[in-house]
Amino acid sequence: MKVNWLSPGSWWPALKQEWLLYHLGDSRFRFMWDEPPPDEWVALDCETTGLNVHRDQIISIGALRIAGDRLLTSERLELLVRPSRAISADAVRVHGLLEREVAGGLEPDDAMMRLMHFIGPRPIVGYYLEFDIAMIDRAVFPLLGMGLPQPKIEVSAMYYEYKLRQLPPYQHGAAIDLRFATMMRELGLPERHAHDALNDAVMAALAFVKLRHLLGR
After folding, report:
1. Contacts for 30 with CB less than 8 Å, ≥ 6 apart
2. What is the phi/psi pair of residue 125, to 5°?
3. Has residue 73 been placed in a domain?
4. Which residues are within 8 A (CB) of 90 and not within 5 positions of it... i.e. 6 or more apart?
5. What is the pLDDT of residues 95-118, one digit of tens each?
6. Residue 90 predicted with pLDDT over 80
7. Range 103-137 burial, b when 16+ CB lie within 10 A, else e
8. What's the pLDDT score for residue 17?
9. What is the rounded distance in angstroms from the CA atom of residue 174 to the CA atom of residue 167?
10. What's the number of domains the chain is made of?
């Protein structure tokens, strides 16, 4: 890697990467710091036993790759994960997954291994991604000694920027509806059954591709 040491903007990311690699818990995962394929991303969503990021666990993962303007639906990942705690009744009402359905799922470490190899070094895209990443980071920490290193792209933030551009300056303090269904409808995109991990990942990917064009990125 050639670094211009006279420019802090060039040496700081490289130094940070070297520090992270030095503290990496398992050298088998160095591939996540490789140069990502150009114009590729991974859209991601999870379903969980509940909404407590410190206590609840992942029970379902859906992910697919994006290349340019194309959703690579043939390159998707759908995993059920066996939790060690009960699924809350509130969570079942949201995603409909019962304990008997996930009882035959993967062990969490096996699921995280498959997920990390699927993502590789690609940036991660999602809708309200902060929660999903917090859950995944907790699950991968025993393997990596850290959370996922890839850049994260929040589609609701992209949508907010797009809607804000449409408002006159004096209305920039106005509330913008960031609900998933509203965003998909406003963007003229097809809705799939929500709170299914793969469906939510597909919808986030569709929104990301369209918003990139609308924002000129």
Report:
1. 21, 24
2. -115, 140
3. yes
4. 50, 51
5. 878 788 888 999 999 999 999 999
6. yes
7. eebbebeebbbebbebbebbebbbbebeebbebbe
8. 58
9. 9
10. 1
- What is the band of 16 on the pLDDT scale with cuts at 50, 70, 90? low
pTM for the model: 0.84
Query: Is residue 157 domain-resident?
Result: yes
Encoded amino acid at 87, one letter: I
| Cα(188)–Cα(154) distance, integer angstroms | 19
Phi and psi, residue 7, nearest 5°: -110, 115
Considering the domain boundaries, does residue 128 fall inside one?
yes
Q: What secondary structure letter does DSSP report for 162?
A: H
Give the separation between CA 145 and CA 81, rounded to whole angstroms: 21
In a domain, 9, yes or no: no
Which CATH number belongs to the domain containing residue 187 in this structure? 3.30.420.10
